[in-house]
Amino acid sequence: MTWLTVTSSLRKLAVIAYPEPVADHLDRVVAQWGAERPDLDVSPMEVFGRLKRLFRLVDAELNRTFAEHGLDAPSFDVLATLKRSGPPYRLTPTGLMESAMVTSGAITQRLDRLEARGLVTRTRSDQDRRSRDVELTPEGHALIDRALPAHVANEHRLLAGLDEAQKAALIEAMRALLEDLGEGSG
Amino acid sequence: MTWLTVTSSLRKLAVIAYPEPVADHLDRVVAQWGAERPDLDVSPMEVFGRLKRLFRLVDAELNRTFAEHGLDAPSFDVLATLKRSGPPYRLTPTGLMESAMVTSGAITQRLDRLEARGLVTRTRSDQDRRSRDVELTPEGHALIDRALPAHVANEHRLLAGLDEAQKAALIEAMRALLEDLGEGSG
DNA sequence: CGAGGATGCCTTAGCGCTGAGATACATTGG
DNA sequence: CCAATGTATCTCAGCGCTAAGGCATCCTCG
Fold first, then answer.
1. Do A37 and A72 lie in a common domain?
2. B81 and B142 assigned to the same domain
């Protein structure tokens, strides 16, 4: 376990802030690079490597709850975006596209699937005949009303291990990073 | 901007810790749910929503640097995993699979592509004839040696807006979440 | 030893997404 | 009013991944 002897300055800071963290995959990765390329400061990997792994694990956990309701993440995303937009629960594909951060082609296909299942309707807009009004059907409402509380409970469960200070710090650091990357300017 | 009047308890905590954060996409999402479903505590979305958006934005940024070196994220991932494993720069598909958190089929295909480009070799193991030894070729070494410093510099650039305390808090919170989700136990 | 199960990797159908491009409609400026 | 440009959506080929299953090899234990 020679990799345990290598620690970055960030790691040491962390140890001071929160006692006894367990070595995880990224500690090993950083230690390996320390041995192989000691000339490089790979400490940013502590952030981005964990971001990637966390995203994958969370994604899998959330999908399980979606599947229990006959949904997947893309479908849930569209239904939830329509629901939280409030009355009249109607958005354009462009609005959905910006919210989901996917291309227009992806939204077209998501809506094809949801429309085929009778969960949303797609009508031509009267104001702008290029555009479409996407709206929840009663079935769509019923489904998202069932799935949402389960999803929220699932998210609470996943966060149960963090205290308020950790959550707040996590949120603020991610907020800062998002702003750096141009979020909110659009 | 009625959504600005709605704030979660987490949000207020955060405001105390770091002055004047700008409202971002997730603030709006949480405010919308507050109006539509005031019975639900959707504060976990502050974490998971930002995690998702951050992952997407970071992924796009990192891919740009990979592309400058004729790579994409999956290829870079395999080459970097082999490189950081140190001499003799050789791993099995199973090892690569666990590191990348993808299925065996995904690794097979990644290796097909890299082998076709002459960046890795795949030979039968002598110890276990079911297994394979995947090894960097000289061309693979040359490519990852060029791409890695650029990638690390890129990651430093993306983190430039965070101070040390924010980085440390972010890392420790993600480490705690990863451990909750079963990382490190494997 | 030899059967049954475990393991390591590969194959393949199907899925959701991207990127490039097409179409239809809207807006702007002369 | 019209031409030029911009905008909203859809189309489609191609990509990487998953899930399920197959094959060869290894291991365990009666």
1. no
2. yes
**A105 CB-side CA count, 13 A:** 0
Same domain, A75 and A133: yes
Amino acid A53 CA to nucleotide D3 C1' distance, rounded Å = 53
Q: How far is the CA of A112 from the C1' of D11 (A)?
A: 13
In angstroms, how far is D18 C1' from A106 CA?
19
Whole-number Å distance between alpha carbons of B82 and B138: 12
Q: Are residues B30 and B97 in the same domain?
A: no
Whether the Cβ atoms of residue A134 and residue A146 lie closer than 8 Å to each other = no
Lowest mean pLDDT among B4-18, B65-79, B91-105: B4-18
Q: Which nucleotide has its C1' atom closest to residue A104's CA?
A: D9
Which residues in chain B are closer than 8 Å to A14, comparing Cβ atoms? Answer: 168, 171-172, 175
pLDDT of residue B13: 47
Whether residues A77 and A27 share a domain: the answer is no
Are B69 and B2 contained in the same domain?
A: no
Give the global pTM.
Answer: 0.89
Q: How far apart are CA B158 and CA B58, in angstroms?
A: 8
Q: B72 and B130: one domain?
A: yes
pLDDT (tens digit per residue) in A142-156: 999 999 999 999 999
Work out the mean pLDDT of chain A and round it to a whole number. 90
Examine residue A181 and state whether it is found in any structural domain, yes or no: no
**Sheet with B132-136: strands ordered across:** B90-91, B132-136, B120-124
Location of structure tokens 């890129």? B154
- How far is the alpha carbon of A37 from chain B, nearest alpha carbon, in Å? 8
Q: Which of A119-128, A149-158, B13-22, B62-71 has the lowest average pLDDT?
A: B13-22
Residue B169 counted as domain residue: no
**Number of structural domains in chain B:** 2
Which CATH number does the domain housing residue A144 bear?
1.10.10.10
Tokens 């699937």 -> residue? A113
The answer, yes or no, to whether residue B67 has pLDDT greater than 80, is: yes
Helix, strand, or coil here: B90? strand
In a domain, B146, yes or no: yes
Domain that holds residue A107: 68-151
Same-domain check for residues B32 and B73? no
Give the model confidence (pLDDT) of B28-65 as tens digits: 999 999 999 999 999 999 999 999 999 999 999 999 99
Q: Is the CB of residue A166 less than 8 Å away from at least one CB of chain B?
A: yes
pLDDT bracket for residue B184 (50, 70, 90):
low
Task: Look up tokens 């076709």; give the residue.
Answer: B116
**B72 CB inside 7 Å of strand D:** yes
Q: Which of residues 55-94 of A touch B (CB under 8 A)?
A: 55-58, 61-62, 83-86
